[in-house]
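Justification of resources, computational component.

The compute hours requested in this renewal are based largely on the per-chain cost of generating structure records like the one below. Each record pairs the submitted sequence with a full structure-token output. That output is archived, and it is also reused by downstream analysis tasks.
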Amino acid sequence: MHLIVGLGNPGREYEKTRHNVGFIAMDYLAEQIGVKMTKIKFKGVYGEGFIGTEKCVLLKPQTFMNLSGQSVLEAAQFYKIPTENIIVVYDDVALEVGKVRIRPSGSAGGHNGMKNIIYLLGSDEFPRVRFGVGAPKHDLADHVLGHFNEEDGIAVTRAIKKIEDILSVIMKQGISEAMSNFNNKVL
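The structure output for this chain reads:
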């Protein structure tokens, strides 16, 4: 079983912002695979389903970004999901808009949600799928909490539409194959 976590901030004011790319990806994925994200537990909203033949739990923490690890830890402990079967999907300001970067492990790279997850899990040894939202021209907080312009919105949406394919390759063929197929490519 895999735990697929999309990071974002709860509340209408954060909908469709750059920092909520993880939530947007989870909503799209849930719709594609027929998962109802209506259960409330683990300080989050979640649903259970399958990507192909792989059982998974889709989770959107509702703790605000910097406390995302609380939700991830509770869900992982409840389902007894090993750290290496947790896949976190989130935004990355170091990537060009619409690009994807998949990694098997690593640091938080300055992302507060990831910092908290790594801290509470006590490990950075879990896969992550990062969607590029572009570098800020001014203030980082204003940038990640801002909305996409039309062109950037189209690029990010096109990349997000590959989330089921990306996760399927990670779970069935391995992280190396997923990295080879999707990293730094315009999707």
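Strands lie at 2-6, 39-41, 44-51, 54-61, 86-92, 100-103, 128-132. The helical segments are 21-33, 68-79, 112-121, 140-144, 150-160, 163-173, 175-182.
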